[in-house]
Specification:
Blueprint (H helix, E strand, L loop, with lengths): L2 H5 L4 H12 L4 E5 L2 H11 L5 E4 L3 H5 L2 H7 L5 E2 H6 L4 H11 L4 E4 L3 E3 L4 E5 L14 E7 L3 E2 L2 H24 L7 E5 L8 E6 L6
Parallel strand pairs: 1-10, 2-3, 2-4, 4-7, 5-8, 7-10
Antiparallel strand pairs: 5-6, 6-9
């Protein structure tokens, strides 16, 4: 696994070209300098009283969003909290499925092609299910180190770099490995204003 190859910071011109390509595909892009600015931007974007759900994301953890959501120091409706109130496992699973239709679903992507496509994968699909259509508003946060030249490079980044790191994390966290199970490629967003990418000029996540 070549960590340096898949984690190097891109040139400013590359970032600029990538943003232009993503926007041409109907996705709003907000470029911020660091993780603190990313979290502040999320606070601005999500209105008070909105339903909020997120998929598992090292990036969201690193910018402080996961801690903020669990702290209750916000004015959103935390669907995670609603789910964990239910102790029956079957009912909890049903609520998890329904939660992907939340007003605001937050997550990240595993790779960003300079040509504008956003690619995200997970083992079960519990995260990426919300991305194509289910969530009313989709807000993604990603570090610029995930930018690669092409869509093929994006898929290669996931298999060669992201998967081994996620597998290692899953074994430590859950006692079992991961897999590249379900993938979503955001080729184009046809619903104006639905999808926003907060692009951070830091290395975040895998």
């Amino acid at each position: 696994m070549d960590k340096e190859k898949w984690s190097r910071m891109p040139e400013e011109e590359t970032i600029k070209d990538t943003i232009k390509a993503i926007k041409s595909r109907g996705v709003n892009v907000i470029l911020v300098e660091n993780r603190e600015a990313a979290l502040n931007k999320l606070k601005e974007i999500i209105p008070a009283g909105a339903e909020v759900m997120n998929g598992s994301s090292t990036t969201l953890d690193e910018i402080g969003f996961v801690d903020l959501l669990s702290s209750g120091k916000h004015k959103w409706k935390n669907l995670h909290e609603e789910i964990f109130k239910v102790k029956d496992q079957e009912k909890q699973s049903d609520l998890r499925r329904k939660s992907v239709t939340s007003e605001y679903f937050l997550g990240s992507v595993n790779a960003i092609a300079k040509t504008g496509q956003l690619v995200a994968c997970d083992a079960s699909g519990s995260r990426v299910t919300a991305y194509p259509f289910a969530a009313k508003n989709l807000v993604l946060v990603a570090g610029v180190q995930k930018i690669v030249p092409t869509l093929n490079d994006a898929l290669k980044r996931i298999n060669d770099h992201v998967y081994p790191l996620e597998d290692k994390r899953a074994r430590k966290a859950y006692g079992m490995g991961s897999t590249v199970g379900k993938c979503v490629i955001i080729e184009r967003e046809i619903f104006q204003g639905r999808t926003t990418l907060i692009l951070v000029k830091e290395k975040l996540g895998f």
